[in-house]
Amino acid sequence: MQRQNHQAQRWRPTNREHYFIILGDGDITRLQWNDTIFDHAVWDFGNCFRVWQEAEQARDGMQEYFTNFHRSIEGQGLPK
């Protein structure tokens, strides 16, 4: 799967600035940007948000996507 190259247009925290990410269980947490490999990885993936409300909106969209995805897989009769 190719990622679209909109990275130059997206907000990126400056050093020591806080940002929000969505964890694997759907919780949202605030982190401080320290210019680490992890910081860059979450930003590259698109999981780096300026405010909690943006992360919440993205999480809600992800939940909807996953629900639809699993429904479509069940309908195809693919092995689990």
Structural overview:
With 80 residues, the protein is α+β, with helices and mostly antiparallel strands. It is 42% helix and 12% strand. It has 2 helices and 2 strands. It has one domain (7-71). The longest helix has 25 residues, at 52-76. A hairpin with a 5-residue loop joins strand 1 and strand 2. It has a two-stranded antiparallel ribbon.
> What Rg do the Cα atoms give?
15 Å
What is the total number of structural domains?
1
Largest sheet: 2 strands, antiparallel
Task: Summarize model confidence as the mean pLDDT.
Answer: 90
Q: How many angstroms separate the termini?
A: 22 Å
Proportion of helical residues: 40-55%
Along the chain, the helix and strand elements come as EEHH
Structural class: alpha+beta
Number of helices: 2
Topology overview:
Blueprint: E1 18-22, E2 28-32, H1 37-45, H2 52-76
Antiparallel strand pairs: 1-2
Supply the key terms.
80 residues; alpha+beta; two-stranded antiparallel ribbon; 2 strands
